[in-house]
């Protein structure tokens, strides 16, 4: 009769599978979110501001999303229970205090989250409380899309074809989350603490809302904007200087928008012949694909290559490697597109997909640095960090993953720049010191003549670094480095 909905990465009050089931099956429903100290404590390491607080855009973004949910629930007579602690302690405690019969939540596909959920389930059962979980953040999960011989796919295109063939209207139907009068019950006094502040958890406001409006409201604004451009997605999506993509990844990451809603929009337009919508839907299917891969290969969360042979590669090491890696992190490689991309990541927490591919290829195949270093840096800095897609993306770029690019396909950072930022607009946005270079030389400033550099007011090594590696030499070195895996590719 009474239920608790435990929100995690589904921060919305509409079309939410767990919430819908709770509302359907219970007279009174409460909602809770736990800022997990096991996840947050490691984030608190490193540089702090003058008040001793940590700048983390994601924690701020989640916090603002939760505030929206709390405001909405308060208007219906309820409220959101927010705690800072271990979910394995908080959830059973809150459930017991509320006297609920069931805790409802949505599936997660990360191994550590699954272990946590198993523990919570066991602890709840000792209290006589049920734990019910639902598919919510993907259209098809785990083993729902299989090959003809009932095995899990590891190649994207046949997976996608099967995914599209399997899709039915019911898979996209929204879960009804309209509460009945009084169903959102007030939080009992004992549990109704003042809304937790960011500062009390050790974090500071980051201003992320000025360019990424949080919550379902912010997500809807971005979605409406994107839907007015979706038909041109295939034209602009590869050009980072253009507003060609949706920028919805962070809202999706935290479930502020429903994947079913997005797929519905894309699929409907695909059926009426929109090429942009067709390609965009394919990107959403990549997201399902990587969740499916992680769910079926949990070992990927331990840092191993999808193709085991690739763990024989010997990467650069020692002080030399650390220096190269640091230059990459700080956007000081001397390759403007790579550097501009890293500045975009460091300044905003976002990086365009084309650039993620370029910088990942550069790190692994130009600098010879282990992809796991890059994966970890992205995990720390991306607002939309998603273990499954991040690992998939990095292993794709390093050629060690499922359906990865062949190891001998090595991006040339200069031609990528000439092709996808031909005017140098994106580069100029993040590297203003190169502003005055022509669109011809901005992609490789060291190739500019003395006169042009002088006219642009640039001294290489002072205003902008010399390239830290020579691409052609690096390419040759990489082919040798990867020769240990030649036979399996
Ligand atoms: P759009 O082009 O508008 O795409 C719409 C949505 O489709 C995205 O929001 C995302 O949910 C999904 N999507 C698009 N491309 C991919 C893809 N290749 N794989 C999986 N899902 C995709 N995406 C993340 O969400 N989190 C990550 O941590 C992440 N790390 C990446 C690391 C590398 C090295 C690479 C190459 C890619 C990574 N991606 C990741 C995928 C992709 O770059 C981002 O999803 C995309 O840039 C987000 O911007 P958008 O929302 O404007 O994308």
TrEMBL record:
EC primary class: lyase
One GO BP annotation of this record: photoreactive repair
Domain Photolyase/cryptochrome alpha/beta: residue ranges: 1-139
Cofactor binding annotation: Binds 1 FAD per subunit.
Binding annotation for FAD: 233, 280, 283-290
Site residues by UniProt (Electron transfer via tryptophanyl radical): 315, 371, 394
EC code: 4.1.99.3
Keyword Flavoprotein: yes
Stretches assigned to coiled coil: none
Catalytic activity as recorded in UniProt: cyclobutadipyrimidine (in DNA) = 2 pyrimidine residues (in DNA)
The entry's keywords: Chromophore, FAD, Flavoprotein, Lyase
GO molecular function: deoxyribodipyrimidine photo-lyase activity; DNA binding; FAD binding
Cofactor: (6R)-5,10-methylene-5,6,7,8-tetrahydrofolate; FAD
Entry-linked PANTHER family: CRYPTOCHROME, CRYPTOCHROME CIRCADIAN CLOCK 5 ISOFORM X1
Entry similarity comment: Belongs to the DNA photolyase family.
Protein's UniProt name: Deoxyribodipyrimidine photo-lyase
Phylogenetic placement of the source organism: Bacteria, Pseudomonadati, Pseudomonadota, Betaproteobacteria, Burkholderiales
């Amino acid at each position: 009769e009474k239920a608790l909905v435990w929100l995690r990465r589904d921060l919305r009050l509409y079309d939410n599978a767990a919430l819908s089931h709770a509302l359907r099956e219970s007279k009174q429903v409460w909602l809770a979110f736990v800022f997990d100290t096991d996840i947050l404590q490691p984030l608190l390491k490193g540089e702090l501001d003058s008040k001793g607080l940590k700048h983390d855009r994601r924690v701020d973004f989640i916090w603002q999303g939760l505030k929206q949910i709390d405001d909405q629930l308060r208007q219906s007579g309820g409220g959101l229970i927010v705690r800072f602690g271990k979910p394995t302690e908080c959830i059973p405690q809150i459930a017991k205090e509320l006297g609920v019969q069931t805790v409802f939540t949505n599936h997660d596909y990360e191994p550590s989250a699954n272990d946590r959920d198993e523990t919570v389930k066991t602890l709840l059962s000792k209290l006589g409380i049920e734990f019910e979980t639902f598919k919510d953040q993907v259209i098809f999960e785990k083993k729902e899309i299989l090959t003809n011989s009932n095995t899990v796919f590891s190649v994207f295109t046949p997976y996608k074809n099967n995914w599209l063939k399997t899709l039915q209207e019911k898979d996209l139907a929204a879960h009804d989350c309209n509460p009945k009068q009084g169903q959102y019950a007030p939080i009992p006094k004992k549990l109704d603490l003042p809304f937790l502040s960011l500062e009390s958890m050790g974090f500071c406001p980051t201003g992320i809302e000025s360019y990424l409006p949080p919550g379902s409201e912010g997500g809807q604004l971005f979605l409406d904007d994107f839907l007015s451009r979706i038909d041109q997605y295939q034209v602009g999506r590869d050009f980072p200087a253009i507003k060609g993509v949706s920028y919805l990844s962070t809202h999706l990451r935290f479930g502020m928008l429903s994947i079913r809603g997005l797929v519905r929009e894309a699929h409907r337009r695909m059926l009426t012949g929109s090429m942009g919508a067709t390609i965009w839907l394919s990107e959403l299917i990549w997201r399902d694909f990587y969740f499916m891969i992680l769910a079926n290969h949990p070992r990927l969360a331990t840092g191993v290559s999808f193709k085991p042979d690739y763990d024989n590669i010997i990467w650069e090491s020692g002080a030399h490697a650390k220096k190269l890696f640091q230059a990459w992190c700080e956007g000081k490689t001397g390759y403007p597109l790579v550097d501009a991309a890293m500045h975009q990541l460091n300044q905003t927490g976002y990086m365009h997909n084309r650039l993620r591919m370029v910088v990942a290829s550069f790190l692994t195949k130009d600098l010879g640095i282990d992809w796991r270093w890059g994966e970890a840096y992205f995990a720390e800095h991306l607002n939309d960090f998603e273990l499954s897609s991040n690992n998939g993306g990095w292993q794709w770029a390093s050629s060690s993953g499922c359906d990865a690019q062949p190891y001998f396909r090595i991006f040339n950072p200069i031609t990528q720049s000439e092709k996808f930022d031909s005017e140098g607009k994106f580069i100029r946005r993040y590297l203003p010191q190169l502003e005055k270079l022509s669109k011809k030389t901005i992609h490789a400033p060291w190739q500019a003549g003395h006169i042009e550099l002088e006219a642009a007011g640039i001294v290489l090594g002072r205003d902008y670094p010399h390239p830290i590696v020579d691409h052609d030499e690096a390419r040759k070195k990489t082919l040798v480095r990867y020769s240990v895996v030649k036979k399996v590719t």
